[in-house]
Amino acid sequence: MNSNQKFWSGLILGAAAGAAIALLLSTDKGKEVLSDAADSAEKMGNDLKSKLESLDKELKSILERGKVIAEELENKVTETII
Prior knowledge:
The structure is a single chain. The longest helix has 54 residues, at 28-81. Helix 1 packs across helix 2. The chain is built from two helices and no strands. By secondary structure, it is mainly α.
């Protein structure tokens, strides 16, 4: 495909995409689809935020348990040396 053909292909695809977007934005069904997509994106964002907060709490808990274990081991080593 030469550059002239690529140009025309790109132009036609761009025009088709623009027409599809214009149709989507101008019809009631298109607005409903966009609204549903926005609602789904918001729900997914909230779910992700909730899961990340849960993961953060779990990691902090694991870190605290690790610190306690490290302190216990340090105390046992110190007692053994003394």
